Amino acid sequence: MTDIMMVFACLNQSLHPTTLRQLRVVAQAMLAMTGRVTMLGLSRWTGKGGSYRTIQRFFNTTMKWSLLQWVLIRTHLWEADEVMVAAGDDVIVTKSGKHTHGLDRFFSSIYGKVVPGLGFLSLSLISVKRRVSYPVVLEPLEQAQTSKSQEKSQKKPQGERKRGRRKGSKNRNRRDVELSPYLQFVQHHLKEMLEWIGSRIKLVYFVFDGAFGNNDAVQMVRQIGLHLISKLRHDSALYFPYHGPYSGRGPRKKYGDKLNYQDIPEAYLKTSSIDKEVETKIYQMQMWHKKFSDLLNVVVMVKTNLKTNKVAHVVLFSSDLDLSYDLVIDYYRLRFQIEFNFRDAKQHWGLEDFMVVNETPVYNSANLAMFMVNVSQALMRPMRSQWPELSVNDLKTWFRSRKYVVETLKLLPEIPEAIFIEQAIAQVAQLGRINQAGNTA
């Protein structure tokens, strides 16, 4: 079984020895403990070297979590020959009370309404080969920086006004955009992540949800040398490029026929399939949108229920005109892996549990939860040779069993041999497992 000491050895140059020792003690407690992950709960499971005061000092220590995440990924999770894409999303952590630093009201898609809590921007690296997301950046949001606030700020002002163009208005270059506070925030931390990575991974694509389906987001991503993959509204007005004759006067015509989603030309059909009475057709074309500065690589997925004749479609796009339709779809689907990071961080590592209120402890508690997502991946990878279907619950069961066995053996007059200890741990770990182990010896 993998030793957590070996996993944390790569952090020797990135953390003070005392802080690293505290982090190791806290991580071992989180892997073994049951119940809510709070400072008091951690102190009860750490044993020697993990008093409540030590846990307090650890959570009040300033740490560069993005660097720690990257060092862990680079050492234990990244393979030199694999393709990776960057992805981002917001996560909302519900909190009650009035004194937690950063507390505000954010829209939560889980609850479908605005809730009091904390908002965080998460940026991750996703392995295309392993289909797994590795979180790198987790930074707190202010309410004005959220993607929902950005959408509200882009709505047209209410009230009547005259049709047509305002007198004295001039054409503007759509590439020269004034980024919203949210886009500036994302760009800053995306640049920071790219600086940590350096030249080790050649990132080309950044994937975000429909909140980035606008020209400002495209220009923000292009400014740092990446291509954006995102989603447009289902009713977006798209136009084919005009290829007709020149009229002989004025500027050349730019926009051709408007795309009719109910009657897309068969010339742009890439693939068609039928599964369980649902026909799926995928189209790819280069299209203009009047609010975007450049041509878009658009992929339209049309699904038709052959039994009810109901039709639905999704419009994906990329700023890379050469990217094939299957990769546009695949990379956008991979973005959902970041949701599993949020699920694990909340369910197993205390992202919803922490009860601290000051700025540094709040920041450390949230980042520690995401850090443990990567630690668990690093621990489970070698263990899957014995447990192919190993889950986080199985991992925590193994570490809890190990703690029970070790604490029990300490009561004996003489410590047994190491092989007996490993057999005892493996046997006790069977009691709470979910998936069968291939070899328990």
Task: Name the features.
441 residues; alpha+beta; 12-stranded mixed sheet; 13 helices
Describe the structure.
- The model has no long low-confidence stretch (mean pLDDT 89).
- The chain is 36% helix and 22% strand.
- The radius of gyration is 26 Å and the shape is elongated.
- Strand 9 and strand 10 (278-289) form a beta hairpin.
- It is built from 13 helices and 12 strands.
- It is α+β, with helices and mostly antiparallel strands.
- The longest helix is centred in the C-terminal third of the chain and has 25 residues, at 359-383.
- Strands 1, 2, 3, 4, 5, 6, 7, 8, 9, 10, 11 and 12 form a 12-stranded mixed beta sheet that branches.
Proportion of beta-strand residues: 15-25%
Largest sheet: 12 strands, mixed
C-alpha end-to-end distance: 11 Å
**CA radius of gyration:** 26 Å
Provide the fold topology:
Elements: H1 4-8, H2 17-32, H3 39-46, H4 52-59, H5 65-77, E1 84-94, E2 104-108, E3 113-127, E4 132-141, H6 147-153, H7 181-197, E5 205-207, H8 215-223, E6 227-232, E7 238-241, E8 255-258, E9 269-275, E10 278-289, E11 296-305, E12 311-318, H9 325-334, H10 337-347, H11 359-383, H12 392-409, H13 418-429
Parallel strand pairs: 1-5, 5-6
Antiparallel strand pairs: 1-3, 2-3, 3-4, 6-12, 7-8, 7-10, 9-10, 10-11, 11-12
